[in-house]
Write a structure and sequence with these properties.
This protein is mainly beta. It is about 0% helix and about 25% strand. It has one domain. The protein has no helices and two strands. The chain has a two-stranded antiparallel ribbon with strand order 1-2. The structure holds zinc ion. The site of zinc ion has 7 residues, from loops.
């Protein structure tokens, strides 16, 4: 079963992307929905996601 989640900034509340993947799987950039990441800078291994609004 797949789950879907918004990637929401804890600082400003902006939703920068959406991810979809199997329940219980580790989160990784490949789970981001391509149509939601047009302006998102994908993080490298070990780096956090950055908010599109406040960085
Ligand atoms: Zn933000």
């Amino acid at each position: 079963m797949n789950i879907r989640a918004d990637v929401t900034c804890f600082h400003c509340g902006h939703v920068s992307a959406e991810l979809v993947g199997p329940k219980g799987a580790p989160v990784h950039p490949g789970m981001l929905r391509p149509d939601t990441i047009a302006n998102l800078v994908l993080p490298r291994a070990g780096q956090p996601f950055r908010c599109l609004r406040c960085g």
